[in-house]
Automatic annotation (TrEMBL):
CDD domains to which the protein is assigned, alphabetical: IPMI
Gene: leuC_2
Protein source organism: Jannaschia aquimarina
Oligomeric form and interacting partners: Heterodimer of LeuC and LeuD.
Name of the protein described by the UniProt record: 3-isopropylmalate dehydratase
Catalysed conversion reaction: (2R,3S)-3-isopropylmalate = (2S)-2-isopropylmalate
Amino acid sequence: MKTLYEKLLDAHTVRRIDDDTVLLYVDFHVMNEYTSPQAFAGLHEAGRSVRDPGRHLAIVDHVSPTRAIASLDEVEDAGGRLQIETLAENCARHEIELIDLFDPRQGIEHVVVPDLGLAWPGTTILCGDSHTTTYGAFGALAYGIGTSEIEHILATQTVEHSVLKPMRITLTGAPGAGVTAKDMVMAVIARIGANGAAGHAVEWDGPAVAALGMEGRMTLCNMIVEAGARVAVIAPDGMALAHLGGRPHAPTGDAWDALAAHATTLRTDEGAVFAREVEIDVAAIAPLVTWGTSPDQAAPIFATVPDPRGDADRRALDYMDLVPGMPLHTIQIDRAFIGSCTNARIEDLRAAAQILRGRRVADGVTAICVPGSKAVRAQAEAEGLDAIFREAGFEWRGSGCSMCLAMNDDVAATGERLASSTNRNFEGRQGRGARTHLMSPAMVAAAAVTGHLTDVRKL
Ligand SMILES: CC(C)[C@H](C(=O)O)[C@@H](O)C(=O)O
Ligand code: SF4
């Protein structure tokens, strides 16, 4: 009797190192300009080479400018420019495929990888970025790693893995209007806390998960990292295979048939034991917003700013400049940001555009939309969504991480308050002294047009 996580682990274990650690084979490794340079430096220092260059892909995303530029010289930040150049040099030297700024496939790595058909059920996919769990939506064992592990994978195509405890989060019921996958994962995080899944491999299960599209499932697997989960998986079904099939890197012919057959075995055995079980009825969820500086400090939009339950809450309220008892919907915003690997896929942009159609961004609010990838951007443009965003007063930008972590020039100013479709509301995350409220893309759009946090169901 095994859980899906345990099956994926077993299938990739090269050898057991000790009770808690195994050596895993890595089918595919993704890297970015931000966390890979030191790994390559270490590799070079040790005089080692890349064992299997075809099993790696590099993508520029964290420092990408989102305004159109003609050449790398126009990347204003010298540090970012150097990271991009270093990645290109390392990829050229080791014959690793690179998706650079000017590549039509460029975008946030966790948006690009599934869109290219690289997230295969039953494979291990690692990347030096915590939100690599996104690919778990396809039944891949995927998670984020640190620099020394990147180096180890480059050299050996294996990695040491600390075995996790399996945890199941079951979503039952049907969501009400205006309730999205983002609200579901935010509700789970609010319930179990920012460490509630620490040390665990989460499996999302239940009818409400099965009813979501692949984009929504990716949002779940992506953001549960904010509850400390290291791995997130969903048993791949027909929808996962349909999403993958026909994409540029999806298998074809016999290889496809083999993958599809294998996918049907990728599910938790009945009777397998989870170390922790959580169940939530999504019918009881309302659209959520965060009020604090940790993703678990969230409440339904109709609620008030809560009384602090301890020093962390007091500090958060102080940073956020909020007073207990204040209705959340009265909080005024300066900026609206739709972007990130959590919520900048085509469905997210469609949901936001539906709210923005025929409306205008409120006076005094700066609103930007950063599609998750150039492909998503092109798709949105083909559907006329860019016109809706622009006519509403949103800036329609190029793709990348952008104001999700403000490592490029998209930075909020001190004291500015944001409605943001991202996944982290830490102090300074979107600019020093900037105040982030996390919510779904539709809720960001609603806040943008009213100028304050707003229940999207009331528009
Ligand atoms: C920069 C990178 C290491 C980081 C991560 O691992 O998640 C970033 O993507 C983030 O979202 O904070
Ligand atoms: S979009 Fe945000 S969360 Fe996702 S990889 Fe980039 S910085 Fe990290």
